[in-house]
Amino acid sequence: MPQTPTPTDSTPPSLVGTVIAVQANFCQVQIDPDTPTVGGKLILCTRRARLQKIGISAIVGDRVTIDEVDWQGLKGVVIDVFPRHSLLDRPPVANADRILLVFALAEPALDPFLLSKFLVKAESTGLQVSLCLNKSDLVTDIQRQEWCDRLSEWGYQPIVISVETGLGVKELQSELDRQITVFAGHSGVGKSSLTNALIPDSNIRVATVSGKLSRGRHTTRHVQLFTMPTGGLIADTPGFNQPDIACAPTELSGYFPEIRQRLATGNCQFSDCTHRDEPNCVVRGEWERYAHYLDFLADSIAWEQQLQSQPKLENNLKQKSGTGKQKFEPKLDSKYRQISRHTLLQSLDELAEELDDE
Fold first, then answer.
1. Which of 126, 141, 233, 291 is deepest in the core (most CB within 10 A)?
2. 3-state secondary structure at position 77
3. DSSP state of 167
4. What are phi and psi for residue 264, nearest 5 degrees?
5. Predicted TM-score (pTM) above 0.85
6. Rg of the chain over all Cα atoms, to the nearest angstrom
């Protein structure tokens, strides 16, 4: 049996690591591999009460400092969370470097519109976007090349693999080294199987594709980071079928490599051109995903209109007076608040004016 690590003179009192899993009020932290005597160990941690009071949470991918480690029970306390260089809200992952979209060439069949929607959603995160095509063993060489040529016109150079035969898996592993990569894509395309192939001891549960619906069953229930033998971290995220287009219409064009390329070599007549029906537009034309762009533009306009129609939430905090420092406390619900003296006097003045008019 492996011996329980014990602190030595070379072990620092505070340790730095990465949050690899979160559940309820606990998080699992992997200590940095280069830490003397305890590098790579997993510590189950809670958050220090001070962090909870000021609303600082720790999510998967966060770099944290831990202290008060119980080396017998491998437990500790998160005392600080480092600033993040990136943050995804769905799924919640901090400090990710890349999104790897995993799609299958068959079973389920590759849907161009759905793939395009995933690509736009991935581009909107601002992270590096890579595209991986799995199950290449289920199609012919001609079909595989046709898809590669087609996606090249979209502005992407897909990585073609087969988890079943091992084709391209090692090459993909070397590309994902020394960074945090978020796996995303249509359920049933083999994300969990790919993670198991890259990290043999991860043992992620895999389900078969439903024959009736030609869709995969959701096998990943929560976000967790898995460490590759070469040092990279993989976030295998819960599968989802339809990513939403939640961006301003003016931002949408920046998420299409084809549009970025056209705008790099020319200018539209209008600076706020939506590339829909404006004259002298350099974007509008005969390129495959232009129809996708128009569909997503309609979704984006609807999303923005819905956002603008929502009532603004009242600030539920007020500054506490007489403390000498800037402090805030929760406001009472409006039905429990007293009418301010200014509002009361204003109402009396208006009533007096009405009586004078009568």
1. 233
2. strand
3. B
4. -75, -20
5. no
6. 27
